[in-house]
């Protein structure tokens, strides 16, 4: 006896709906839901042990309204995750849209000069044959710092190259341009300058008392100036008969008391003893002190003044400050 399957209309509709639902959500990997392929191409990236986190630094100084670019260079290599069977030329370019400021000002294109924007990774090699070199560059983009009076930020990005992919996390070099306001040259010298006669200037302390030991021409123990650090901080003022264009001055250590010399000081200048202009703060290097060399304070731009005030003078030694002589240069 043959069985006859009877399906009512409501049951048939329910069955059709179930079949349709099962067919509407194909699994990932089917032709309807393809999986994005991961590229097997070698990865191009920036990662240099000398630049932790792909970060570099350049320095500029605002010297009385003029932005001075320091002689710094950021260098970094470009790398491949696996070698190619041919030479590969790779390049970088400024990319302001990718700049992360971290409190600095994002600078427009032109703030830096990429000295060699294109380098080569040789056949079979993983690293570019030479580093990319970058320096700060004078111009409108960099002059933004004169207004913001803060650090600047620049980002360089790897350009695409045929046959490779740029690694997503290592395609940028982030450069901070450190901004400083100072008219003083670090580790300065007196090259090309003329020493003034000690009869053309005199020195007083913070109490306006004459300090003849600093202009007597001797750094010997019987002619040196000294005081206990506990009596500081100390102030000296160098005075001239008339406003004079000054390029530098130097503090000489006393003979036999090298380690007791000046470590740091602040420099101000004035034409009338009323209005003072801060020229900057400066530190005597440890090497300079160890070699008993003069502590040269040179102005980036010579200053026309009648008075030079040295304040916040701190000693290299914890107990005494000892100074042999103070010379002035034009």
TrEMBL record:
<feature type="domain" description="F5/8 type C">
    <location>
        <begin position="172"/>
        <end position="330"/>
    </location>
</feature>
<keyword id="KW-0732">Signal</keyword>
<feature type="signal peptide">
    <location>
        <begin position="1"/>
        <end position="21"/>
    </location>
</feature>
<dbReference type="InterPro" id="IPR008979">
    <property type="entry name" value="Galactose-bd-like_sf"/>
</dbReference>
<dbReference type="Pfam" id="PF00754">
    <property type="entry name" value="F5_F8_type_C"/>
</dbReference>
<dbReference type="InterPro" id="IPR000421">
    <property type="entry name" value="FA58C"/>
</dbReference>
<protein>
    <submittedName>
        <fullName>F5/8 type C domain-containing protein</fullName>
    </submittedName>
</protein>
């Amino acid at each position: 006896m043959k069985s006859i399957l009877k399906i009512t209309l409501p049951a048939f509709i329910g069955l059709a709906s179930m079949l349709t639902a099962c067919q509407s959500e194909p699994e990932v990997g089917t032709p309807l839901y393809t999986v994005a392929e991961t590229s097997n191409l070698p990865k191009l990236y920036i990662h240099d042990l000398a630049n932790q986190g792909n970060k570099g630094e350049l320095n500029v100084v605002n010297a009385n309204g003029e932005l001075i670019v320091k002689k710094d260079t950021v260098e970094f290599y470009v790398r491949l995750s696996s070698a190619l069977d041919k030479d590969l030329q790779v390049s970088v370019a400024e990319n302001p849209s990718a700049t992360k400021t971290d409190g600095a000002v994002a600078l427009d294109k032109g703030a830096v000069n990429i000295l060699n924007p294109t380098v080569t990774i040789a056949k079979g090699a993983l690293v570019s044959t030479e580093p990319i070199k970058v320096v700060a560059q004078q111009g409108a983009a960099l002059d933004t710092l004169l207004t913001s009076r803060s650090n600047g930020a620049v980002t360089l990005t790897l350009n695409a190259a045929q046959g490779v992919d740029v690694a997503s996390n290592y395609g940028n070099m982030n450069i901070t341009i450190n901004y400083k306001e100072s008219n003083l040259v670090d580790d300065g010298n007196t090259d090309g300058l003329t020493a003034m006669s000690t009869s053309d200037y005199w020195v007083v302390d913070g109490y306006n008392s004459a300090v003849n030991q600093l202009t007597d021409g001797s750094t010997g123990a019987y002619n040196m100036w000294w005081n206990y650090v506990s009596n500081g901080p100390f102030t000296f003022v160098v005075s001239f008969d008339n406003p004079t264009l000054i390029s530098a001055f130097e503090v000489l250590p006393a003979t036999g008391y090298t380690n007791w010399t000046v470590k740091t000081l602040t420099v101000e200048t004035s034409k009338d003893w009323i209005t003072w202009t801060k020229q900057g703060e400066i530190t005597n290097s440890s090497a300079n002190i160890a070699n008993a060399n003069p502590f040269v304070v040179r102005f980036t731009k010579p200053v026309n003044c009648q008075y030079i005030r040295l304040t916040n003078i701190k000693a290299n030694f914890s107990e005494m400050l000892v100074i042999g002589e103070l010379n002035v240069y034009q």
